[in-house]
Amino acid sequence: MSTTPATPKVNRIGLTVLEYKGSKTTLCAGCGHNVISERILEAMYEMGVQPERLAKLSGIGCSSKTPAYFMSRSHSFNSVHGRMPSVATGALLANRSLSASA
Predict the structure, then answer these.
(1) Residues sharing a CB contact under 8 Å with residue 95, sequence separation 6 or more, in sequence order
(2) pLDDT by residue (tens digit) across 44-59?
(3) Cβ atoms within 10 Å of 75's Cβ, excluding its own
(4) In the chain, what's the furthest Cα-to-Cα distance?
(5) Which of 26, 48, 49, 51 has its CA 20 to 30 A from that of 100?
(6) How far apart, in Å, are the Cα atoms of 50 and each of 12, 57, 58, 69?
């Protein structure tokens, strides 16, 4: 009996969910940041967002690690405390083809 390998499911732009993954998390087990990152990943996959057109922005602290944990092909930037909204505004004004996740 011959078996053929299963073809991975792709979204409307032809990417698999694995192409939206990032690095393995180093945050504490049960951390809310991991849950949020996973939901963002799922939403971007389901909507068919091109990873290279997403900017992931964060401030300091544990949240500054999260951009590494999903959509490894997208842009990311860690700003200093309280400056992330200003950085996000500047990035989106400078490149209007980007979407942002903060």
Answers:
(1) 55
(2) 999 999 999 998 888 7
(3) 17
(4) 62
(5) 26
(6) 10, 17, 20, 17
